[in-house]
Design a protein that fits this description.
This protein has one domain. Strand 1 and strand 2 form a beta hairpin. It has a two-stranded antiparallel sheet. The protein has 271 residues and is mainly alpha-helical. About 3% of the residues have low confidence.
């Protein structure tokens, strides 16, 4: 528990500075996180028996994140974001061409599938953090609120689940409990409420409830999704990058699902 607190004391200021600076520093920060997470993801899926095209996947992940950045605050969809659409389209074509030329029918389809899963999971989804930060004029506030909500909800779920949890939440992660999950949702709603009082005046009462519930649930599924990958690979942590705390993917997992859910709610119902 003490290590968990100390790690937060170190990491939170670093993350907050990157978010505050925005622009190129934040882009570099997100690219670094995605690159480290991609390395861990490729390692995990290799243990399962897949053959990802790692170099190709890493390049596409970085190009997707950069293309989202250069599209500013436009909605990142394949319809309105032409730069990102171009990256996706070329990556599909080029990787298929590579597999056709290579002609290894034993690995071709699994390699295609797992490489593009990595591109979407590690590049496209976390890339929504850049879109949140680019929201004007309150991108910094919205980003900090998302970070704080997930951190607080996750911590509350951990402590309540450890102290009072009885009913298992999922077979994917046996230590997680329904009690902890409910506590996470409540903590998330309360965090958004506090954010409205002090930072985000434009939110109404329904926004507080729906953002709180959606962020908590999506973050929990993000955590479970990564746990599913790790259990398939037969490992406890995505890597040993952070002593006693696992890897970068272990720290990013909840945000991978929460960021796009949060962004699209803001885009369609708040902004």
């Amino acid at each position: 528990m003490l290590n968990r607190i100390l790690l937060s004391v170190i990491l939170i200021p670093v993350v907050c500075v990157a978010v505050y600076l925005g622009f190129i520093p934040f882009l570099v920060f997100i690219c670094a996180i995605c690159f480290l997470s991609a390395y861990e993801f490729w390692t995990l899926v290799e243990k399962i028996g897949f053959y990802p095209r790692k170099t190709f996947g890493n390049i596409v992940i970085l190009l997707i994140v950069i293309s989202i950045f250069f599209n500013g605050s436009k909605m990142a969809s394949l319809i309105s974001n032409e730069a990102t659409s171009l990256v996706f389209t070329l990556s599909v074509l080029l990787l298929f061409i590579y597999e056709v030329i290579r002609f290894d029918i034993r690995t071709a389809l699994p390699s295609l599938a797992i490489t593009f899963l990595g591109v979407i999971y590690i590049g496209w989804l976390p890339g929504h953090f850049i879109l949140i930060r680019d929201i004007m004029p309150d991108g910094f506030k919205y980003t900090i609120v998302l970070l704080a909500t997930v951190w607080i909800a996750d911590s509350v779920a951990y402590f309540i689940g450890t102290a009072y949890g009885v009913h298992p939440l999922s077979r994917v992660s046996p230590k997680k409990t329904i009690e902890g999950s409910i506590a996470s949702v409540v903590a998330s709603i309360l965090t958004i409420l506090i954010a409205k009082i002090f930072f985000l005046k434009g939110l109404n009462h329904s926004d507080i409830f729906f953002i709180g519930v959606l962020v908590s649930i999506s973050a929990q599924f993000g955590d479970l999704a990564e746990s599913l990958i790790k259990r398939s690979a037969g490992v406890k942590d995505s890597s040993k990058l952070i002593k006693n705390h696992g890897g970068m993917l272990d720290k990013l997992d909840s945000f991978i699902f929460a960021a796009p859910v949060y962004y699209y709610y803001l885009k369609f119902f708040v902004l």
